[in-house]
Design a protein that fits this description.
Number of strands of chain A: 15
Structural class of chain A: alpha+beta
Low-confidence stretches of chain B: none
Largest sheet of chain A: 5 strands, mixed
CATH topology of the largest domain in chain A: Cytochrome-c3 Hydrogenase, chain B
CATH architecture of the largest domain in chain A: Orthogonal Bundle
Strand content of chain A: 15-25%
Number of strands of chain B: 5
Number of helices of chain B: 3
Radius of gyration of chain B: 20 Å
Mean pLDDT of chain B: 88
Radius of gyration of chain A: 23 Å
Largest interface: A-B, 25 and 22 residues
Number of domains of chain A: 2
CATH class of chain B: Alpha Beta
Oligomer: heterodimer
Distance between the termini of chain A: 32 Å
CATH topology of chain B: Alpha-Beta Plaits
Structural class of chain B: alpha+beta
CATH superfamily of the largest domain in chain A: Cytochrome-c3 Hydrogenase, chain B
Mean pLDDT of chain A: 90
Distance between the termini of chain B: 79 Å
Number of domains of chain B: 1
Strand order of the largest sheet of chain B: 2-3-5
């Protein structure tokens, strides 16, 4: 496991309840613990006015921002509420809850001190009408111009279809102005089979001065859709938040349910879940390495790695019946055992894939013309990565050693000791290198997992889900940390679910990495982050 | 040498795409295609209708119908069927030119006399 960021001060001595002592001193009697069923989570009630200062204090002390969750509790006679969660490796996760008024919910914005929360607060404002006062970017994020003013879909009394009504003024992209500065609008419809995003470049000649990235064109209202559903029904929707992080989302969801129910999945299930998670990482990473090659027109690399990815997808199909691994992970374990013959053939098929991957990486790493394009392109500095709360490959390639498999290990990862691959350069070459090394590391983890698959059942009955109980779930996916906040309502149904995917966390980093580069290099930079639009937009 | 390798590798790899639709798609044995009903074994318990998360299955006295436009291939019906009459087979070529083409109807034999 890598070192912690050298710039972060040593964590202060903790008070008995897990909070830094200076924070307890700062808040005095304005912080009250709330009992929770979720192990390793600390929940506190605080005043809305204290949120910003305590968020800044925590993040300044080396904690990492996890998510903001909006809650509409008016049906229970209360008002709105907002919850902010923070984590530190191998420590408790803390959640701060602040009650807000029912009529005009607002609180002082935390994003000025914690830029990682910039998009969370804009989303909260769109979907709940909770106003983060003093937010540096008050534009809409999730709901584009066509939605009427005052329509906040995650409020319980919001109609499922937006009503007719006057909309806000047209979207104004952030752009640079001056002599010789051109605005280059690109998208949301692109050449090629990719998801929709609008990129507004401000450029002088070929050089990008500023990039305003706009996504959420595929917002489907998944969080609203799962409200009131049974957990088994909601799982079908959550694991399809996007097409390529299926195991990640399903595992995070299952974990949250299991933490509320107090259920431990059996050893065979946790082992096979890790097998599936590494297979998901592997096919994504291999595909992304190919896509990076495609970003510079290096066709041998992209076609050969694409063919390798296809073979990995067929391995997925042989194990689960589905190329993208849906319908296997469920709360309590796995839905059924994996077919014995496919499991027996897996080490051989993976050994073949590893041999080809090593050959192909050698081929790309010897192609100086390709590497020349990767180096010093799309640099994301370590400081920016920390400020924006970048996760996953992008963070590790910028010298920020974060990986939930190491920081908050669950299931089989508790005993697996995952190697943390890092690079300091923060450019496309670094992200290519980290992905390549992580692919080989996943193949090694798979060997270790498959050498010792425990016998026994693959699922256990779930404990009961108490109304009002809430917990976090998480998983380190191919793109990084995906977090999920879940609260149970009546009859073991979903009261509120919030999914903050790794792609949601990393989009602002893509925009931050673009300035100073050539416009034609942006496809390459974008591919080196390789984020999902669908699980960002939800 | 490296350049030569980059030239020769695609030639050595050869054609890897399949001849679909002239030939059937390449599938693994475990593939989950559209649920298929063995009408002889169906006892009309309608457990499949109850467990389907998307309401893709309907059952009448004469037929069992699955809507390929709703099915998400989760396999819940296959696991719920008390007589093992449902199988997620290898039928994956389900695109249709009209919505009605997504409805796959399996006629059921007349209910046996007691």
């Amino acid at each position: 496991m890598g070192e912690r960021p050298a710039g972060a001060p040593a964590a202060p001595a903790d008070a008995p309840d897990g909070l830094p002592s200076d924070l307890v001193a700062q808040l005095g009697d304005r912080v009250h613990p709330i009992p929770t069923v979720a192990p390793g989570e600390l929940v506190f009630e605080v005043l809305p006015a204290d949120l910003a200062s305590l968020a800044s204090t925590l993040v300044g002390g080396g904690w990492r921002f996890v998510m903001l969750v909006g809650l509409d509790e008016r049906r229970g006679g209360a008002g709105f509420a907002v919850e902010a969660a923070f984590e530190r490796p191998n420590a408790s996760i803390v959640r701060f809850r602040a009650a807000l008024s029912a009529d005009a919910p607002s609180y002082p914005s935390i994003a000025r001190g914690v830029p990682a929360a910039l998009w969370d607060e804009r989303e909260l404002k769109d979907l709940f009408g909770i106003v983060p006062e003093g937010h540096p970017d008050p534009r809409r994020l999730v709901l584009h111009d066509s939605y009427p003013r005052g329509f906040h879909p995650l409020r319980h009394d919001a109609p499922t279809t937006p009503p007719d009504g006057p909309t806000d003024r047209r979207y104004v992209p952030f752009a640079a102005h001056g002599e010789g500065v051109f605005a280059l609008p690109v998208g949301p419809i692109h050449a090629g089979v990719i998801e929709p995003g609008h990129f507004r470049f401000s450029a002088v000649g070929e050089t990008v001065l500023y990039l305003d990235a706009r996504v959420f064109f595929t917002h489907r209202g998944i969080e609203k859709l799962v409200e009131g559903r049974t957990t088994s029904n909601a799982l079908q929707i959550v694991e399809r938040s996007c097409g390529v992080c299926t195991v990640t989302h399903a595992t995070a969801f299952a974990l949250a349910i299991e933490r509320i129910a107090g259920t431990e999945p059996p050893a065979r299930a946790t082992n096979l879940r890790a097998v599936l998670a590494e297979l998901e990482r592997l096919y994504n990473h291999v595909g992304d390495l190919g896509n990076i090659c495609a970003g510079i027109g290096f066709n041998v690399g992209s076609s050969q790695l694409g063919w390798l990815k296809e073979r990995l997808l067929r391995i997925n199909e042989s194990l689960t019946g589905h190329r993208y691994l849906t319908g296997v992970v469920v709360p309590g374990g796995l839905v059924t055992d994996l077919p014995a013959d496919a499991l027996a053939a897996l080490p051989g098929r993976l050994a073949e894939a590893e041999r080809d991957l090593r050959t192909l990486l050698h081929l790309v790493n010897r192609a100086e013309a390709a590497l020349e394009r990767f180096r010093s392109t799309g640099v994301l500095s370590r400081r920016t990565a920390i400020d924006l709360g970048t996760v996953g490959v992008a963070a590790r390639a910028s010298g920020v050693p974060v990986d939930l498999r190491c920081d908050h290990p669950t299931g089989a990862y508790g005993t697996l000791s995952v190697p943390l691959v890092e690079s300091a350069a923060g450019d496309v070459a670094a992200r290519f290198h980290v992905r390549a090394q992580e692919s080989l590391a996943s193949l090694d983890l798979l060997k270790r997992l498959l050498a010792d698959v425990p016998e026994g059942p693959v699922n256990v009955p779930l404990g009961s889900l108490a109304p009002g109980a809430s917990a976090l779930g998480w998983a380190e996916g191919p793109r990084g940390a995906s977090w999920l906040w879940l609260r149970i309502g009546q009859d073991e149904r979903i009261d509120r679910l919030h999914l903050r995917s790794a792609s949601f966390a990393n989009w602002p980093s893509v925009a931050a990495a673009a300035p100073g580069n050539l416009v034609p290099d942006f496809p390459l930079i974008n591919k080196s982050f390789e984020l999902c639009y669908a699980c960002t937009d939800r | 040498m490296d350049l030569l390798d980059r030239w020769l590798r695609p030639l050595r790899t050869g054609v890897v795409t399949s001849a679909y639709p002239a030939k059937p798609p390449i599938l693994e044995p475990a593939v989950r295609g559209l649920p298929e009903l063995d009408a002889e074994r169906c006892t009309r318990e309608s457990d499949c209708v109850a467990v389907c998360p998307t309401g893709a299955i309907s059952l009448s006295a004469e037929s069992w119908t699955i809507d390929a436009g709703r099915c998400v291939f989760c396999g819940a019906c296959e696991r719920a069927c008390p007589t093992g009459a449902i199988d997620l087979g290898d039928s994956v070529t389900i695109a249709a030119v009209a919505p009605s083409g997504l409805l796959h109807v399996t006629p059921l034999p007349p209910r046996p006399e007691r």
